[in-house]
Amino acid sequence: MKNHAQFPIYVINLKKRPERLQSIQHEFLGRNEFKVTIVEAIEHPNGAIGLWQSIRSVFSKVTDEEFIIICEDDHQFTDAYSPEILASCIDEARKNDADVLLGGVSWFTEAAQIAEYLFSVETFSATQFVVVFSKFYKQILDADFGDHDSADYKIAALSTKKFILFPFISTQKEFGYSDATSKNDNFGRVTAIFNSAIQRLSLLNQIWKFYDTNPVTELPVSDYQATPHQVISTYILASDPDALQMDKIREQFKDKHEFDTTIVRIAKRETDNQGFLYFIQEVIKLAIAHDEDKIVICNSNHQFTSTYTSDYFFECIQLAQNANAKIISGGTDRFGSAVAVQTNLYWVDWFTNAQFVVLFKSCFDAILRLPKTHHLSLSMIYNNASSNKLLIYPFISRRLDSESEPGNQEAMAENYKRMNFMRNEYIKYSLPSSRHLSYYGETY
Predict the structure, then answer these.
(1) Which of 130, 159, 262, 332 would give a disulfide with 351, using CB separation of 3.0 to 4.6 Å?
(2) Closest CA relative to residue 48, chosen from 12, 75, 19, 102
(3) How many domains does the chain have?
(4) Is the Cβ–Cβ distance between 295 and 283 less than 8 Å?
(5) CA dihedral (409, 415, 417, 419) positive or negative
(6) Residue 105, domain CATH
(7) Pair (401, 315) in one structural domain
């Protein structure tokens, strides 16, 4: 990267918005690290098109800069900003072959932290402060832009390597109107959505820091390969099972000698009256009596995926134990925020449809202490019991016949897309190059 005496920044402002010009000039007052150029925005009946044309006009004139910063006139610096942080993150992003580096976003789909101040991001919104690297100039100049496009989504779609600087150094200032995004005409909305994005990234950052400080120890292959003596007690919760249902679940565990299965038959009226918590607690009491250090609890609608092998399963268990996890889920229909802990293990704040879980001894007491209620689903029980939950991916479990449920195929496809993004980013940016990747690499 060139040793810039100043950061080249181009501020886009409509001539009819002098109050915004005054505001943005105040933001850069005394900040001599920036070489500020005010760009008169191109006005268009469709504000989003006008903004894109204005952005393109900047790049049509820039040729020899290694990067420039595009800034909208509603940008405002946060307390986290410093010239040193910005310079350091630009350099870090450049080393990772970035297309763009975002000073702050109002929304994003998935994000994976790759360094102390950097997240890799999938899709995002807000372009009030964007560092654009020279390798990406041509994509912007050559891109088609339609009536229903927006600058942020267009850049996100065009770019394969986009990063967020966090904590944010930039947010959007409230003016009560937007010339490019009509949804932001309501005063207070911009602040609310930025705060939501900050909360999400703060959680991911907190978890990333924990595992960065307490990395999960890698295992020699001999430590996790399944052996004939490795057996885990497995309790199958079967609610009003019929003969066909019982045949299906027995078929799932046929020839899988690593599972010592016990079928817990539950009448539906019992779950209506006492809830699943009662039966989970009874199973845990049995596990304690037998001095078990871990157990599997699964539903009768559990089905192993083609990814499942005993070696893969026991490797994940051992790695999860090294991470002091309390619960592992073998698969889910939906989940909240997630952070990669290892190539095949992901911390999640919540998950649904807990058809196959491993419970470690360290969470037994927490589940036994949960207040008696019949309103808790299985996943709610596990989510309430511990914040230290890991999800195996690629999944080893799915719900039987789940793909036939209306809308569930789309939800599962979105799940796989989200998990694949995080897995790929972890492998690209966080995995030591010397690590021997496990062969459990097929994704969906």
Answers:
(1) 332
(2) 12
(3) 2
(4) yes
(5) negative
(6) 3.90.550
(7) yes
Give me 233's structure tokens. 């007690």
String of DSSP letters for 162-209: EEEESS-SEEEPP-S--SS-GGGGSTTHHHHHHHHHHHHHHHHHHHHH
Instruction: Collect contacts of 246-255 with beta carbons under 8 A, ≥24 apart.
Output: 246/300, 248/300, 248/400, 249/300, 249/302, 252/302, 252/303, 252/304
Q: Strand pairing of 327-329 and 356-360?
A: antiparallel
Distance, CA of 57 to CA of 61 (rounded, Å): 7
Please, which pLDDT band fits residue 244 given cuts at 50, 70 and 90? confident
Strands 100-102, 129-133: pairing is: antiparallel
Q: In what order do the strands lie in the sheet with 34-40?
A: 34-40, 7-13, 67-72, 129-133, 100-102, 162-165, 118-121, 111-115
pTM of the model: 0.89
- Looking at residue 386, its pLDDT comes to 94
Same domain? 321 vs 360: yes
In the structure encoding, which two tokens stand for residue 440, read together? 């459990």
Report pLDDT digits (tens) over 408-438.
778 888 889 999 999 999 999 886 543 333 4
Identify the residue whose tokens are 């002091």: 324
